[in-house]
Specification:
7-stranded parallel sheet, Rossmann fold, 15% strand, 6-stranded parallel sheet, 15 helices, 390 residues, alpha/beta
Length: 390
């Protein structure tokens, strides 16, 4: 089939989390004979302090068609809003040049809103992954707003599928595929590389891969802006009480990130802990291996609920960022309180591994999504389904 006859699928990757949750789709789309893959890399995925995801993408054998620098420094509500506006302007130009048939946007990050607005206003079919889920933070509002702008929906759970339809979306446009993030860990050799703690460098004491370790990943909560410094200090106090060797990943670019980062830096400078090593990022595969082999996953990342559930990793979810999201039996929920966090971690350490859960999919989301993208009829006309069926 000639390239001009192929359907052009453009995927916008904006962060380390975005890439891990769409990589299997990129691989599957590339394998489809009647699809042409286009990749735009933007926002924090281009920045050194957030892990240089663009370099991981290149190492994985993908060649981005374009890049978008749109993140303003400061990590405040104002810079987050302005960064979204800048991304809309830049993406509109790129979509005009690339002329995609379908644009895929991932989940619920604020950059996702920019992709959705630019594509929908330009009459480009918009496909959305992980719609219909429920959480706290601004992510909740962004996710549902993107659903209403999207024309195709690839949901991760049965409940999410029902919620998207109840939002007025045509059931024929809603596909329960599972979460693409599960695909990577389902097909992965989960053996922990002996050099993993050295290869990704970071800052802090040497960690021993043969001894138990915690993984902590705690992001700011945008709707609780101004409380991040106090919140991260509660988590730090809990980890300091346990003193198990710990892999601590840097927070994302959301409003409040500077507060969380400040708390981490001050703790390190004051206490110079001999048990915490701070990292910027891991590849999606090595992150899967990292959490699978950990004694407990701590913080407020959805990976504890998604991949953690599938892998049976004991997890402690802190605060409201994942409020209302479905989870397996592996997750314990606590508030931002050092004593409560410490108690929950110790309980999970005593409990050990959990059974694997397929709540978020069976590891075949990418190929399901690619097949639908190659076969489904494209329409950009939106309507409230329940109005037209009553």
């Amino acid at each position: 089939m000639k390239n001009k006859d192929k359907r052009r699928i453009c995927v916008v990757v904006n962060s380390r989390a975005n890439y891990g949750r769409i990589k299997s789709v990129l691989l599957a789309v590339r394998e489809q004979e009647n699809l042409t893959l286009q990749i735009i890399v933007g926002a924090s995925a281009l920045l050194h302090r957030f892990g240089e995801v663009d370099k991981i993408i290149l190492r994985d054998g993908f060649t981005p068609n374009a890049t978008v620098y749109s993140i303003l420094e400061g990590e405040t509500p104002t810079t987050m809003a302005k960064s979204t506006g800048m991304a809309i302007m830049e993406l509109s130009t790129l979509f005009e040049n690339l002329k995609p048939d379908i644009v895929i946007t991932v989940a619920d990050r604020f950059e996702t809103m920019a992709t959705a607005i630019a594509a929908s206003y330009m009459n480009i079919c918009l496909a959305h992954t992980q719609g219909g889920e429920v959480t706290g933070s601004i992510d909740e509002s962004v996710r549902h707003a993107v659903t209403k702008l999207s024309h195709l929906h690839f949901t991760a759970t049965e409940r999410a599928t029902e919620y998207v339809i109840r939002m007025g979306e045509d059931p024929e446009t809603v596909f329960f595929t599972g979460c693409p993030a599960i695909d990577l860990v389902a097909k992965l050799d989960l053996t922990l590389p002996q050099d993993i703690f050295i290869r990704y460098m970071g800052v802090g004491p040497a960690l021993d891969p043969d001894k138990p370790y915690l993984v902590v990943l705690q992001h700011p909560v945008t709707t609780e802006y101004g409380r991040g410094f106090a919140q991260i200090n509660e988590s730090l106090r809990a980890i300091a009480s346990i003193k198990m060797q710990t892999v601590w990943l840097w927070p994302n670019v959301d409003a409040g990130s500077d507060e969380v980062s400040k708390g981490l830096r001050m703790f390190r400078e004051k206490h110079n802990p001999g048990y915490i090593h701070f990292y910027r990022n891991f590849s999606p595969e090595d992150y899967g291996r990292l959490i699978y082999n950990s004694a407990c996953l701590v913080g407020n990342s959805s990976s504890a609920l998604r991949e953690g559930s599938y892998l049976g990793v004991p997890a402690v979810n802190i605060g409201t960022r994942q409020l209302g999201r479905e989870n397996g039996e592996n997750v314990m929920h606590v508030d931002h309180d050092a004593k409560a966090i410490e108690k929950a971690i110790k309980k999970q350490l005593d409990r050990g591994r959990y059974r694997s859960s397929s709540l978020f999919g069976d590891g075949h989301a990418g190929e399901k999504i690619a097949k639908i993208l190659s076969e489904t009829e494209i329409s950009i006309q939106k309507k409230l389904y329940y109005i037209h069926t009553t």
